[in-house]
Design goal:
The chain has a five-stranded antiparallel beta sheet with strand order 6-3-5-4-7, with helices on both faces. It has a two-stranded antiparallel sheet with strand order 1-2. It is α+β, with helices and mostly antiparallel strands.
């Protein structure tokens, strides 16, 4: 007895989800084919954001950026690190750092481009290398990759800061966000469309 193609495809598509084998019918011979698939391909893959910053006429270019320590080791939350980061960010002036939050194993910050058109990734690489040269403590390293996204609206900008500002509470480091000493504002980055 021949089963209609639509039923055969449906039954094998259900099996596909549970097995690293991919089953399909050959279009000409109508015989069952079985192929191995990468087991990771059975699940949706998280995509890394595209590199580069999108510049939009009439909107400010404010970037939300997250940088983590290598292996998420918690060495960032100290007065010395806080002071040195502020110094390095001020010296690397092609992009202005606005609000920032330094957590034990990662940093969130907002940055805006100045008139110097320097690629954001190059700027991040530069300040990370300058920090490492000045900090000089073995084992205090950065993750190679980091994450950034351009803010598209003033509302998104404020919502993202509200999320970041609550980080010390979510991590049970303080009872009120303003009690966390490793945060601040280097430059006032205002969302103004023109």
């Amino acid at each position: 007895m021949r089963v209609p193609i639509s039923l055969r495809v449906m039954s094998f598509s259900l099996q596909k989800c549970a097995s690293p084998l991919r089953r399909s019918f050959h279009p000409k011979t109508n015989k069952l084919r079985t192929q191995m698939t990468d087991s990771n391909s059975l699940f949706p893959q998280r995509k890394h954001p595209a590199d580069g910053i999108l510049y939009v006429d009439g909107q400010p270019t404010i970037v939300f950026h997250t940088v983590c320590t290598k292996d998420r080791k918690p060495w960032l939350a100290s007065d010395d690190v806080h002071h040195l980061l502020r110094e390095v960010w001020t010296d690397a002036s092609a992009w202005l750092v606005g609000r920032y939050m330094i957590m034990p194993d990662h940093i969130h910050l907002f940055a805006a481009m100045t008139k110097d058109e320097i690629d954001f990734k190059k700027r991040v690489t530069y300040w990370k290398s300058q920090f490492t040269k000045r900090h000089k403590i073995n084992g205090h390293r950065w993750q190679t990759d980091d994450w950034d996204t351009r803010m598209r609206t003033g509302r998104q900008y404020e919502e993202k800061w509200d999320y970041v500002h609550m980080n010390p509470i979510r991590h049970k480091l303080v009872e009120r966000p303003d009690d966390w000493p490793f945060q601040g504002v280097l430059n006032e980055l205002r969302w103004e469309e023109w």
